């Protein structure tokens, strides 16, 4: 199905035509001129049956004896195909808040996730005829797409290890929107935005995963500290040798490296030891 424009006539002009035909027909019947009066009244009744009011941000689906003849989108008073059936479809922007879903991320950890989807109908014919109750279709497909995206990524990562649900909210929202658009295009629905509204570990593993996050954060921080410490030690030794401050053999160089690394990497402040030499 594809939306098309239905035949319409301005409703106010149509009402004037109906009143004129009705007055003419009644006059002819009073004068017993049935050949003109009866057809005029019949045409007036036929035109009157096509009278319809379209509200703003609302589409009116017009079907005639089971056939789709078009859609009315412009608000106002209109006269369309007589003896047709008209059904309303809202074109307003709407929100769908999913329930909290319990799914597994790519690492198998159970998480709770929810999202909000902002959408609107852009093709009323598809929304009415290609799916059964497009509102429910949007709900089911939104939850399905949310589960699929949640299964593709870990809850959280440390360092440059790729995307995560918690650390890359913008990228996840974009992917969720694109996948939803592919699924909902068959229903004539445009996805304006899709974002996560809730993301957390399931209660049964929340405390354990918190400890895991803390441990991973400590390891990541320690790795950065060690990497920085090695660079600082290399720079210090190179500068000492370049400026000729002190001559370092391999043993003294190793001792200096050891002392510098301990002072930099240690989580406690260094306590200097001053060598004053022997008293005797």
From TrEMBL:
<dbReference type="InterPro" id="IPR036013">
    <property type="entry name" value="Band_7/SPFH_dom_sf"/>
</dbReference>
<keyword id="KW-0812">Transmembrane</keyword>
<keyword id="KW-1133">Transmembrane helix</keyword>
<dbReference type="Pfam" id="PF01145">
    <property type="entry name" value="Band_7"/>
</dbReference>
<dbReference type="InterPro" id="IPR001107">
    <property type="entry name" value="Band_7"/>
</dbReference>
<feature type="transmembrane region" description="Helical">
    <location>
        <begin position="7"/>
        <end position="27"/>
    </location>
</feature>
<protein>
    <recommendedName>
        <fullName>Band 7 domain-containing protein</fullName>
    </recommendedName>
</protein>
<keyword id="KW-0472">Membrane</keyword>
<feature type="transmembrane region" description="Helical">
    <location>
        <begin position="33"/>
        <end position="54"/>
    </location>
</feature>
<feature type="domain" description="Band 7">
    <location>
        <begin position="49"/>
        <end position="213"/>
    </location>
</feature>
């Amino acid at each position: 199905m594809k939306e098309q424009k239905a035949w319409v006539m301005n409703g106010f002009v149509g009402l004037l035509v109906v009143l004129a035909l009705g007055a003419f027909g009644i006059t002819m019947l009073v004068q017993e001129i049935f050949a003109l009066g009866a057809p005029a009244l019949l045409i007036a009744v036929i035109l009157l049956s096509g009278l319809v009011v379209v509200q703003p941000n609302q589409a009116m689906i017009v079907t005639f004896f089971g056939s789709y003849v078009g859609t009315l989108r412009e608000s106002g008073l209109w006269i369309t195909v007589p003896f047709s059936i008209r059904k309303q479809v809202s074109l307003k922007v709407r929100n769908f808040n999913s329930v909290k879903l319990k799914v597994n991320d790519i690492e198998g950890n159970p998480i709770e996730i929810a999202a909000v989807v902002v959408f609107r109908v852009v093709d009323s014919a598809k929304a009415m005829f290609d799916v059964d109750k497009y509102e429910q279709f949007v709900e089911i497909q939104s939850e399905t797409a949310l589960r699929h995206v949640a299964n593709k990524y870990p809850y959280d990562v440390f360092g440059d290890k790729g995307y995560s649900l918690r650390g890359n909210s913008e990228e996840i929202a974009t992917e969720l929107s694109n996948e939803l658009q592919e699924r909902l295009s068959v229903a004539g629905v445009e996805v304006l935005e899709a974002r996560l509204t809730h993301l957390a570990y399931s209660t049964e593993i929340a405390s354990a995963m918190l400890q895991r996050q803390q441990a991973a954060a400590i390891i990541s921080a320690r790795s950065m500290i060690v990497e920085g410490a090695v660079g600082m030690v290399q720079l210090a030794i190179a500068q000492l040798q370049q400026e000729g401050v002190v001559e370092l053999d391999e043993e003294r160089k190793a001792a200096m490296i050891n002392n510098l690394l301990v002072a930099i990497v240690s989580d406690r402040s260094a306590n200097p030891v001053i060598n004053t030499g022997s008293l005797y």
